[in-house]
Specification:
alpha+beta, Alpha-Beta Plaits, 2 domains
């Protein structure tokens, strides 16, 4: 039992640096050469009993050669052994067919060499084509020869039938093995391609809207679309610079991932579009790439949920976490530019004002411009802040968003 296990382990062993596809061929060739040595030894004995001394001697030599091919394979010379084995195969089937005729079916083994050459990754494509051409020529040539010429030393009919059955079944089995190997390889390659395609699609859809990704694939040129109106949200972690100074890089990134993952879930649930994160800043827009009438309300509702999510993250991490949120509504241009590391982005004065609403806001609060406030005042509770100085815009009237009106919140919850 132990000897059998060692033998099985030997047949299943491949060099550790061998690619999986070649490793399977390595094991198959090891089994094939071993079986070939045994079969040729049996053929040598059978031809000896039939007084076919030339064929018996040839198969005896063939047994030794098959063992040599096996040694070459195991010792890292598979290409040399493979070429020699195909030369021997063509010579052998030619010799035996000339002596015994087509009926014994030995000429069918030319098909084995023809198809097996297509799977031999250890020889060049040129050598594969040469072996295929030689095997095909031998098959056709022997078929024509056997139809017109008489065998030199024909076998008794019973032995012709025995050899025909054995050889036909062996060739059919081998061809089936080749076909199944090819099918398995193709199926696995197609599955791998589909998996990689799904990964690339998921990655692309993570960095830009699916509709924009489809346009980019169809026409990889600059994509720029005007959108009006949209509502933009900027959120920033209060005191992040001080936090970064007293935290390790790993803990800081883990904390950011904790908070932003919660934000991502909220954005996805509301069907909004996350544009990007820059350091500790988080940017979201509603109303593009597909317009929506409730863009301002959707962003306002998201901002309130982000405040709650930050409080939850603070309880989980033990950090004193707060965010500052700014919101503004207006027209933008959205699109994809560049050839490498491209991303979906938005531009325009609306973006700048939204960023100013965040930077001039207060910790733990949501500051709205008057443009956004006018759109959401029927659905949300607002606290006037008065006019503030906004860089590049002068004095602007702003509001703090304090919550959703009770009736609206109840209706939203019911939905």
């Amino acid at each position: 039992m132990a000897s059998l296990q060692r033998l099985i382990a030997w047949f299943g062993h491949t060099p550790p640096d061998m690619a999986p596809g070649i490793a399977r061929m390595h094991i198959g060739a090891k089994l094939g050469f071993s079986a070939w040595a045994v079969v040729q030894a049996l053929y040598a004995l059978g031809f000896l009993l039939l007084d076919q001394h030339v064929l018996a001697a040839y198969n005896a030599v063939g047994t030794l050669l098959a063992c040599i091919y096996l040694v070459l394979l195991v010792n890292g010379r598979p290409a040399f052994g493979f070429v020699l084995s195909n030369i021997q195969n063509i010579c052998g089937i030619t010799l035996i067919t000339v002596y015994t005729g087509l009926g014994t079916g030995f000429f069918l083994f030319a098909l084995v060499g023809l198809l097996y050459a297509t799977l031999a990754e250890w020889v060049s494509r040129g050598m594969q084509h040469l072996i295929i051409a030689a095997s095909a020529t031998a098959f056709v040539g022997l078929l024509v020869y056997g139809l017109y010429a008489q065998p030199l030393d024909p076998l008794p009919l019973a032995w012709v039938v025995v050899f025909a059955v054995i050889n036909g079944a062996s060739v059919a089995g081998f061809l089936l093995m080749v076909a199944l190997t090819y099918r398995f390889t193709v199926d696995r390659a197609e599955a791998a391609l589909e998996a990689e395609y799904a990964k690339s699609e998921a990655l692309l859809h993570n960095i830009m809207p699916p509709a924009v990704a489809a346009r980019l694939k169809d026409n990889p040129e600059v994509i720029a679309d005007s959108h009006k109106p949209v509502t933009i949200l900027f959120a920033d972690i209060v005191g992040f610079t001080d936090m970064a100074g007293r935290s390790t890089a790993e803990s800081l990134v883990r904390m950011l991932n904790n908070i932003f993952s919660r934000f991502d879930a909220l954005v996805e649930a509301d069907g909004l579009e996350k544009i990007k994160t820059i350091g500790d800043a988080y940017m979201v827009v509603a109303g593009l790439p597909a317009p929506r009438e409730d863009h301002a309300q959707a962003i306002a509702r998201l901002a309130l949920r982000m405040i709650d999510a930050t409080a939850d993250a603070a309880r989980d991490t033990g950090e004193d976490l707060q965010i500052r949120v700014g919101i503004h509504t207006g027209d933008v241009v959205a699109g994809v530019i560049g050839q490498r590391k491209f991303a979906y982005d938005i531009w325009g004065d609306t973006v700048n004002v939204a960023a100013r609403m965040e930077s001039t806001g207060a910790a733990g609060r949501i500051q709205l411009s008057a443009d956004t406030a006018g759109l959401v005042r029927d659905d949300f509770d607002l606290e006037p802040r008065g006019e503030i100085e906004v860089k590049g815009k002068g004095r602007m009237e702003t509001f703090f968003l304090t919550g959703e009106k009770a009736a609206v919140a109840a209706a939203t919850a019911a939905e």
